[in-house]
């Protein structure tokens, strides 16, 4: 069931969202006013999902820190709670260089998988989420580190606004990222396209702006974005076929990895557990 947003709550657990406007007193003859409409921006929805996820963080945890505009809210919230002394002894494992910088700036002590091979909890956003909690990630370019860290977690909470929900992942017409080595990337991109020819696949190298230099990941690789006109079929089969191609490092399908999904939408926040 959805939990509706309170209009004005200032607690440690819930962000303040759209306080109600004060309107003139109604005349005794006028009909009762409709309930106030709360219109939240997409970023406010991301923040609500992120804050809800941070309620699961406990002192002493090793945390996977996600990347992107949704995960950013979770990282800054954890930093706030550390500063207030409400969380202690947190170790963060960042999923990108960008998150590394952000986490340091908000005072989260950091480590890595070499020192902490088991992660208690990761919180991260996603680009697409299907009804089985399979994900597409990596439109922000951090899919390899995200998959390594989130694959080492006991619990992985995915935080999204409702625009990310899809019936079939890969079917939204948006990019399905694949990280490839730079060596002969055109050859690898063409082999990826041929793998999914029947699905009307287009394979495009990601660049820094239209016609710019290739986008380079934190691991010094490139990203080939796949676009499909039709369904790609069984996701595990598609995953195996991609991973078997020499030159491919990792892809952005995160299948069966999420343990909890938090979705913030206009009607409230929904939490779904596996
Ligand atoms: O996978 C990711 C980065 O590699 C992000 O989690 C994903 O792109 C969602 O980003 P945002 O929260 O900005 O919508």
UniProtKB/TrEMBL annotation:
Catalytic reactions of this protein: aldehydo-D-ribose 5-phosphate = D-ribulose 5-phosphate
Main EC class the enzyme belongs to: isomerase
EC number from the UniProt entry: 5.3.1.6
Pathway: Carbohydrate degradation; pentose phosphate pathway; D-ribose 5-phosphate from D-ribulose 5-phosphate (non-oxidative stage): step 1/1
Keywords: Isomerase
SUPFAM superfamilies, A to Z: D-ribose-5-phosphate isomerase (RpiA), lid domain, NagB/RpiA/CoA transferase-like
Location of region: Disordered: 16-35
InterPro entries: NagB/RpiA_transferase-like, Ribose-5P_isomerase, Ribose5P_isomerase_typA_subgr, Ribose5P_isomerase_type_A
Top-rank taxon, per record: Eukaryota
Pro residues bias (residue ranges): 17-35
GO biological process terms held by the UniProt record: pentose-phosphate shunt, non-oxidative branch
Pfam families, per database record: Rib_5-P_isom_A
GO MF annotations in UniProt: ribose-5-phosphate isomerase activity
Annotated family: Belongs to the ribose 5-phosphate isomerase family.
Name of the protein described by the UniProt record: ribose-5-phosphate isomerase
Species of the source: Rhododendron simsii
């Amino acid at each position: 069931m959805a939990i509706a947003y309170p209009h004005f709550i200032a607690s440690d657990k819930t962000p303040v969202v759209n306080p109600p406007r004060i309107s003139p007193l109604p005349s005794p003859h006028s009909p009762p006013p409709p309930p106030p409409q709360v219109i939240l921006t997409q970023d406010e929805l991301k923040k609500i999902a992120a804050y809800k996820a941070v309620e699961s963080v406990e002192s002493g945890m090793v945390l996977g820190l996600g990347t992107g505009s949704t995960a950013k809210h979770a990282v800054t919230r954890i930093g706030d709670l550390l500063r207030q002394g409400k969380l202690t002894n947190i170790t963060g494992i960042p999923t990108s260089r960008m998150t590394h910088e952000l986490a340091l700036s908000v005072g989260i002590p950091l480590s890595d998988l070499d020192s902490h091979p088991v992660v208690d909890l990761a919180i991260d956003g996603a680009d697409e989420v299907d009804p089985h909690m399979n994900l597409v990630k990596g439109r922000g370019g951090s899919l390899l580190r995200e998959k390594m860290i989130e694959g080492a977690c006991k619990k992985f909470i995915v935080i999204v606004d409702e625009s990310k929900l899809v019936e079939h992942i890969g079917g939204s017409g948006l990019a399905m990222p694949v990280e490839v080595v730079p060596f002969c990337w055109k050859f690898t991109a063409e082999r990826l396209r041929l793998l999914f020819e029947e699905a009307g696949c287009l394979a495009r190298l990601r660049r820094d702006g239209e016609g710019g230099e290739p986008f380079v990941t934190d691991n010094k690789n490139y990203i080939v974005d796949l676009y499909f006109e039709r369904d790609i079929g069984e996701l595990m089969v598609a995953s195996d076929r991609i991973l078997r191609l020499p030159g491919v490092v990792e892809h952005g399908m995160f299948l069966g990895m999420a343990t909890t999904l938090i979705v913030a939408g206009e009607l409230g926040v929904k939490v779904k557990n596996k």
